[in-house]
Amino acid sequence: MKLLIDTHLLLWAAADKLPKKAVTYFTNEENELLFSSASIWEIIIKKSLNRSDFQIDPVTLYWGLLDNGYTELAITSRHTLLVADLPKIHKDPFDRILIAQSKAEGVILLTSDQGIAKYSSSILIK
After folding, report:
1. Strand arrangement, sheet containing 108-111
2. Percentage of residues in the chain having pLDDT higher than 70
3. Is the distance from CB of 68 to CB of 55 less than 8 angstroms?
4. Strand 2-5 with 122-124, pairing
5. Which residues, in sequence order, are bridge partners of residue 32?
6. pLDDT, tens digit, for every residue of 2-29?
7. Residue 107 pLDDT more than 70?
């Protein structure tokens, strides 16, 4: 199964603090783990704002994800156009592009955010 990992789960995975339910998705070798370039961008922006939950070095995270077999999903115009069609359930622009990417690519978005999980292409991890 192809799984697009939301930003917080990426951060928790890097810090070795994944919820137990998430570990099974991350360790199942049949799953292809994807990360969005939007997540790297979000980390850069929120780290520059001194958000305590975004203090990982984005360069280190990026190379670590690639070294650990994750596949990068770049943002395309097709993804951004789909954002306009999303219901207004969730307002965070970074999360909305992740939702649009998952829908456009036909992959599941793995998230810990209950707002994101209201979209049909998502799995909620608590």
Report:
1. 71-73, 32-36, 2-5, 108-111, 122-124
2. 99
3. no
4. unpaired
5. 2
6. 999 999 999 999 999 999 999 999 999 9
7. yes
Which pTM was predicted?
0.93
Correct CATH for 2-124 of 2.40.50.90, 3.30.360.20, 3.30.950.10, 3.40.50.1010: 3.40.50.1010
Distance, first Cα to last Cα, the chain: 20
What are the Cα distances from residue 41, in Å, to 45, 54, 61, 106?
6, 11, 12, 22
Judge whether 59 and 65 are in contact, CB under 8 Å.
no
Q: Residue 8: what are its φ and ψ, rounded to 5°?
A: -65, -40
pLDDT tens, position by position, 46-74:
999 999 888 899 999 999 999 999 999 99
Residue located via tokens 């203090």: 55
In the structure encoding, which two tokens stand for residue 49, read together?
A: 């704002």
47, 48, 52, 57, 59 from 110: Cα distances, Å: 22, 25, 22, 22, 22
- Residue 101 carries which side chain, given as an amino acid letter? Q
